[in-house]
Structures are given as C-alpha cells and as structure tokens.
Amino acid sequence: MSLGEHVASNLPYLRRYARALTGSQATGDAFVRATLEAALADEQLKASLAGGRVPLYRAFNAIWASANVETDALVPAGSGHEAAASQRLKTITPLNRQALLLTTLEDFSLEQVGQIMDLDETQVAELVRDAVEEIDRESSTSVLIIEDEPLISMQLEDLVSSLGHEICGTAATRTQAQEVVSRCTPGLVLADIQLADGSSGLDAVDDILAVGSVPVIFITAYPERLLTGDRPEPTYLVTKPFQEATVRAAISQALFFGSSRPLN
Q: Which pLDDT score, from 0 to 100, does residue 263 have?
C-alpha cells in the first residue's frame, strides 16, 4: 500500500475525530487540512505517516496543540454555529477531552495515546479521569433515542439515565420519532441510521432539525455509509458494537458544544 493509500484509508476516521473534538465539520476539516499541508511540507513528517494511525494522529495533535487557542487563523468564516464553536474552543480545557476521545471514540490504548499526545500512560489515565469527572458535572438534558433494536435501545436508555439525563422518548421508526417530537422537544438525539420499517434515521433527524437545532449522535453499524466525504457528515458518529464509554464521550462533546447541528 502506498503512503497516499495508507493516509486515505485512515483519513475518514481522523476527520470523524476532528469533528468530535472541535464540534463541527468545517472546523475539524480545517485542522485535518492543516495537518496534511504540514506533512507535505516536511519530508520527515510525511515519511512517518507510513507507520500507522498513531503517527497520523500525532501529526494532527501537533497542529491542534499549536493552534487550538487561536482558531480564527484556521477556521473558515461560516454560520453562527461555526462562530460559537470557535469561541467555545477558546475556553475549552482540551487535553482531558482529547485523551477521552482518543481512548473511546478512536479506541487507542493508553500507550498509543501517550505517543500521540507526548505524555506517559499515567498522565493519560489522569486526563481521562478528569474528563469523566467533568462530564459528571455537566447539566442534564432530555434525550430522544431512535433505535429499532430493543436491547440496544434499553442499553442506551440505561446509559443516558445513569448520566443524569431524562428520556424524552424512544422510537423505532421515523413516524414514531415524529410522534415523540410532537409531544416534547429533546435536547439531544441518539439515532440509528437503518430503522425497523425500512425508514431512515437520517430522515428522522432531518425532520427534527427542520423544527429546531438539536445536537445529534448517530450510532450505526454502517459508518462507511456516512464517512464518504461526498456529503456533509455527522459531527458525532459512533460505530456499533459500541463501548458505553464511547457513547458517553460523544454525549459529553455534543452537549459541550450545545445546540450544534450534526450536519453542517
């Protein structure tokens, strides 16, 4: 596999991580683009990318660490949400959330995260604990779960409740989701893509976003259907089968950025 093919195979997941870390597709892609431009300008850095996912994420981390407090230089002008995300990034304590996302969403080991962030394993573990404690202090919201598999829906209900959030409702189809939203307005949506009656979770989410801006986390066994680069991609995308810590981290980031639209 050539270097270009190797980087291309990992790029959709780096972009997913960047979106989750920054809260928007435009902002995340700006950091990924800056990472690739830096690699092209540095032969040693470019050669290191052949070593697997860790060097690619390490290169991204170097860009992120040097620019996250001055995002205006990287983030393109855009919607009110983009401006809000940029302002939020300036006040974030990024290291702990970055460690949490790398160990959960990206499934790196503590050792690998240490290599990416230039820290030892003990420091990474402390950052993850700090992030979890920060999550526990966050205010609660109401959550709509759109999921057609009863056992997974129940698992998500238990997880959401354990984090101190209320269940606005559950739905297995697009129609049921519409019925729930007609009764209450969720502050967060967890949605599968492929639903029981053949309807689409994407369409169900579009219905909700037509009414108001709500953060959405897609949880799917088919991430490749969305990680194509051909259309706006979800800011928060969790792959089934999932670890509860991964969903927890995604919920934390979604609520951290408030009413950010998942599709920009």
A: 37
Q: Which of 72, 100, 135 is the last residue of a domain?
A: 135
Residues in CB range of 148: below 8 A, 6 or more apart: 172, 173, 192, 194, 195, 196
Q: How many angstroms separate the Cα of 165 from the Cα of each of 115, 132, 142, 185, 236?
A: 35, 15, 6, 14, 18
Residue with tokens 């990034």: 89
Is residue 264 a part of any domain in this protein?
no
C-alpha span between 112 and 86 (Å, rounded): 28
Residue 187: φ, ψ to 5° = -95, -10
Please classify residue 94 by burial: count the beta carbons closer than 10 Å to its beta carbon, then call 0-12 exposed, 13-18 middle and 19+ buried. middle
Top-ranked range on mean pLDDT: pick from 75-84, 106-115, 236-245: 106-115
Q: Which residues contact 244 (CB under 8 A, 6 or more apart)?
A: 155, 159
- Whether residue 236 is contained in a domain is answered as yes
Question: Could you tell me if 71 and 153 lie in one domain?
Answer: no
Closest CA to 187 of 217, 149, 218: 217
Amino acid at 147: E
Q: Same structural domain for residues 73 and 14?
A: yes
**The total number of structural domains that make up the chain:** 2
Instruction: Note whether 145 and 190 are within 8 A (CB).
Output: yes
Residues 143 and 113 in one domain: no
Report which of 206, 215, 145 is spatially closest to residue 180, judged by C-alpha positions. 145
Write the CB contacts of 178 (distance below 8 Å, at least 6 apart in sequence). 204, 207
Residue pointed to by tokens 């999550």 = 135
pLDDT, tens digit, 9 for 90 and up, residues 85-118: 455 554 445 788 899 899 988 989 999 999 999 9
